[in-house]
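Dear colleagues,

I hope this message finds you well. In preparation for our joint manuscript, I am sending the Major facilitator superfamily MFS_1 (Asticcacaulis excentricus) sequence together with its predicted structure, so that both groups work from identical material. I would be grateful if you could confirm receipt.
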Amino acid sequence: MSGIPELSRPHKAAVPFIFVTICLDIVALGLIIPVTPALIADFVGDVSAAGYWVGLFGSLWGVMQFISSPIVGALSDRFGRRPIVLLSNFGLGFDYLLMAMAPGLGWLLLGRLINGITSASISTAYAYISDVTQPENRAKYFGMMGAAFGLGFVLGPLLGGVLGDVDPRLPFYVAAGLSLLNFCYGLFVLPESLPPENRKRFSFRSANPLGALAFLSRNGDLLRLSLVNLTVNFAHQVLPTTFVLYAALRFGWGPKEVGWTLAAVGVCSAIVQAGLTGRVVKAIGEKKAMMVGLSFGVIGFLGYGLAPTWQAYVVFIPLMSLWGLTGPAAQALMTSKVAPQEQGTLQGANMSLMSAAGIFAPLTFGAVFAVASTHGPVTAGAPFVLAAAILGIALLIAAGVKAAIRHSGSGAAPSGPAH
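The corresponding structure tokens are as follows:
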């Protein structure tokens, strides 16, 4: 394959669509966060039992992501990105309608399992960006996608809470409408990004979690970057797992304070990922940007866990947001180390690894908080200190990664024959 050209006019229209797709997918996911526990409680008739089912729903969603992400990524390498993205949007719309009309807990659980499968196509969106951008610009675009994630996580729960006050099933209908609207929009503006000559044969031998791990471990740098991604996503789970409980115990915060804080986090993260990532990577390169991001992550988590007052905690939010440099820089490094026809496989394997962290990390941080909080508010920050230590390990692993080598006329360094 010759060098990746500047974005064509169709792709210039398609890239914003990919960003909108990511944002709307996350908004849709966020819409149902405030109302799903209440809906489960209505079905089981007991709040304590609902807590068990909410945890089970979350873990099973992660399991489905873990299993299906490599399959979806490999399918996009075989059949192209466009059909996978569009089928996902349509599937998500159908799935949200199913959950909106669920007559019982079993149907709601089925909808959540389907959601775990159809949401796995986020990896295909990342592969699409890899297809149509120059390697040196990918960190910038991945940063913009990270900003779309952040914006979605801010808007989704806020809108879901408002709509849920009207009817707990209304957010599901709105989420379905957004996904189906996205599908219709994509039919007209989303061209295929992977030409037929760059596609590869589908094989279940590689399109499974074990095959994904084998793919990621086939060279030293890819393995190191995979471990960085794993530890980063493991550490990130401390926030959704313990933040609300920690803030209530340490600072006496209620839903209003938590909501405003999460909004501030989302805004700061969007500024870093959309506004700073491209500039920082251009100035110092992907590896150094990744190292800087991890360093600020360590500082930020230590600040969160040790802050003596809420004012001190808030001061660390903009510092912590610089952690957002890590993901786009690491993603850009990884895409530079595999061939163009393997970008979907790479992103599917990455997503599978992230899902594995999402299965086990909440159990770890939840247990640490349960033990630490029994000794009082001061020690309740122990999960954040643990997250800082985990990022410190990621920093050591990242130090061994080689910087990206740019080859004129090559979109990515080939790493194996096409099939």
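For the figure legend, we might mention the following. Residues 9-190+206-398 form a domain with the Growth Hormone; Chain: A; fold (CATH 1.20.1250.20). DSSP finds 17 helices and no strands in the chain.

With kind regards,
E.M.
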